[in-house]
Amino acid sequence: MVSSVDELLPPKGNEKKRGRGKKVHLRIPNLVSSLERLAMEIPSETKNPNPSTVTTESSSKRKEKNTDFEFCKVCKLNHNQGRCHNFFPNHVKSLSSFLSRFHSKLSDVRFFLKNPGVLPPDLASRNRFWCVFCDSDVIEHGSSFTCEKGIRHLASADHLKNLKSFMWKYGGGKDRIDRFRFTEADLAKYEQKRISLKSESGTEQSHGPLIGPSNDIHNEQKFDYVDNFDRSRIISHNSSFQNSVLPLQDYTNEKYQVSHSDLSGHVATNTSSYDSQSLLSASDANHSNNLRGNVGGSGLTNGYHYNGLVYAEKRESNGESNLAGPQKLTQISSAFNEPNAGNVHSGAPPPWFNATNGIDLNAIKTKTSKSKLNPKRVGAAWAEKRKIEMEMEKKGVLPVNKFDASWLPNFGRVWQSGSRKDSRKEFEVEAKKPVKDEGQNVDSSMQLQPYISKRMKIDHVFLEFLPFFFLHVILSAGKPMDDLFYYSNKGV
Amino acid sequence: MSYLLTTLTKKEDVDSIIRDTIDKLLVLRFGRSSDSVCLLLDDILSKSEQDVSKFASIALVDVDSEEIQVYVKYFDITLIPSTVFFFNAQHMKMDSGSADHTKWVGAFHRKQDFIDVVEEIFRGAMKGKLIVNCPLPPERIPKFQLLYKGV
């Protein structure tokens, strides 16, 4: 839009020309075109009384949209980028980490969906999690099974609704929705398992605290209290040992623990009550055996071996079919158990390692620790070389070298300028010099003559070349060759 | 005091200790066991030897022996006690504000000063630095006059 009449005037260049007295050619064609433009714009203006204002409105709307601050739960920051924020790489990154974190928290809940376990009431307060989609705590209050309420929550319709809205808002993607909820079918399966477990649990009340993962470090109730490192370890552990978790007991006696782990591991998987009873009696006897027969390490190792074998057998049986019949297990005698041989727990080498190979183990151990040193440290290459040399010397491959008397370390000398390599050379040169100069010592002392001004001197005297070279130079610079004076060393 | 620390009198021994101390700082004290300042320094060295044993090893070199004279000249040792530092057979320098960076001249005021110096040099060496700055304040650094080429 033409805002002022100035635009109709010719450009300022012409004005200058005018000043110089040149004839001005008004740009008539330009004037006409600008008038036409004006003519055209006026009707357009009247048509749309507010064309610019409409555009400004929409732009302001857009601007308004942009200036609206909203909180992104994923990135945990306030932004005014509107819907665009979901596509920013930072948001995408934080969303994926956020979802993976919650997914890992749910992994234990998922475990219990497939393997229901009884939850003792005192540990119920620990068995809970915060659902980020519903912004609510899911507490197990008054549920007899672990994560029961959690499972129900994740299968509920409300949760699904919240999940969907969250995904829409933060750009999650529809494929991710199924990861964070349980379907009706899953819930139905869970219910069935729960009922069957309930019927079983009636017979095994006395072993309540041992059954299930209540004292299990792999369990999610301790999840929140374990730091991230442990969590990742535990998850991997959990996934590999689905049916054979070792519960952590209050007792420090490892062997006692193992015996009970065996029991609970068995119980958690086996559905037949008869089995549990038989094993109960067997392990009970064993347990008492442990406590009574505590003769040094032998009794314990005996118990451990027995348990280990029972354990192995149980796992094998479970691998084939979950509903194995009653098993009669034979106790292996402890005749060939060496109490002093040590085992994995005491850090002893496995039996396939000969005694002679024990040295190699040490070498392997030390080698791994060496590699931690900074490769950029001073003299690293030399150190590595030297280590290999020393190893070889130890073994006797390389004879111990008699160092030559002229070896000198790399030393940066005090009064030298240049690299350290030069210092050694310099030193060697200097070391040789005194040998030479000793012969000339007598002569050199005579060289120190008192200074006699050349102007005073009439005769030519001979100068010893080396020490007074600089004097020679100064003299020769200003004077012609004839007037060079030399001092003789034969005496004045 | 020197019976508490390894004392060396032969060039061979000095060479072997320089070459065999790997990934540890080597502290070589050049001096006389009868000199008073040397005794002070030796006392501090012997007391802190166990503390720094994991990253440093200490040895005393008798400056009066003939074989060592080569080293006395090579290292430009004019004042005793002088302590030279080596790491992986590389000489380590320390800028303590004095004229001579190649060695430490004199004793230390405190045992902790010595440990600080050794630690500073070790850290520099592990990072790949051949010269490090002295962590001690100037009042605790012994002052000396360095004459040009011992003249």
UniProtKB/TrEMBL annotation, chain A:
Pfam families: CCDC84 (PF14968). Coiled coil: none annotated. Residues 15-25 have a biased composition (Basic residues). Residues 45-58 have a biased composition (Polar residues). Residues 1-25, 41-62 are annotated as: Disordered. This is TITAN-like protein.
TrEMBL record, chain B:
One of its GO terms (cellular component) is U4/U6 x U5 tri-snRNP complex. GO terms for biological process: mRNA splicing, via spliceosome. Pfam families: DIM1 (PF02966). The keyword Cell cycle applies. InterPro entries: Dim1, Thioredoxin-like_sf. The keyword Cell cycle applies. Gene3D superfamilies: Glutaredoxin (3.40.30.10). It is found in: Nucleus. Keywords: Cell cycle, mRNA processing, mRNA splicing, Nucleus. Homodimer. Interacts with the U5-102 kDa protein subunit of the spliceosome. Essential role in pre-mRNA splicing. Required in cell cycle progression for S/G(2) transition. Belongs to the DIM1 family. This is Thioredoxin-like protein 4B. It comes from Deinandra increscens subsp. villosa.
